Amino acid sequence: MQDWMAVCRVDEIPQLGSRRVAREQGLDVALFRTSQDEVFALLDRCPHRGGVLSQGIVFGRHVACPLHNWAIGLADGRAREPDDGCTPRFDVKVEQGVVYLDAAQLASHATEFTRPTAGPCTRLAADAAGSGCAGTA
């Protein structure tokens, strides 16, 4: 059974926009809201060069990375072709206007990811093995 943690209200996420949720360990989680009021949660890191996805433009069910305009699927975290890569996703639910994230995922999922500080992006072993999109646990 999942233990859900309230993180904000839906109306605190701009339509076609985002909001960040800080974590004790690892990078922030980005919450995205579509024009249809769907809410998605991804690690706030583009799989290409580590761009901050919460600063990107939401269109349809995708977000465009602000660095190189990669289109990342909000439902699965996968880059749209011809680009290749993925960012970890988090389980999210909305009830009575409140957004919840899985507390266990928030505490431990994808905590090994970092942002590049300079130079070419190097993939961590977990990223190179494809674990970023394979699952959520």
Give an overview in words.
This protein is mainly beta and 137 residues long. It has one domain (4-129): Rieske [2Fe-2S] iron-sulphur domain (Rieske Iron-sulfur Protein, 3-layer Sandwich). The chain contains 3 helices and 10 strands. Strands 2-3-4-8 form a 4-stranded antiparallel β-sheet, with no helix packed on it. The protein has a 3-stranded antiparallel β-sheet with strand order 1-10-9. The two termini are 13 Å apart. The model is unreliable at 120-131 (pLDDT under 50).
Give the helices and strands, then pairings.
Layout: E1 4-9, E2 17-21, E3 29-33, E4 39-43, E5 57-59, E6 62-64, E7 71-73, E8 89-90, E9 92-95, E10 98-102, H1 103-108, H2 125-128, H3 131-134
Antiparallel strand pairs: 1-10, 2-3, 3-4, 4-8, 5-6, 6-7, 9-10
Summary keywords:
single chain, 137 residues, mainly beta, 4-stranded antiparallel beta sheet, 3-stranded antiparallel beta sheet, 3 helices, 10% helix, globular
The gross shape turns out to be globular
Indicate the CATH topology: Rieske Iron-sulfur Protein
Unreliably modeled segments:
120-131
Helix content: 10-25%
Content-based structural category: mainly beta
What is this entry, summarized?
With 137 residues, the chain is mostly beta strands. It has helices spanning 103-108, 125-128, 131-134, and strands spanning 4-9, 17-21, 29-33, 39-43, 57-59, 62-64, 71-73, 89-90, 92-95, 98-102.
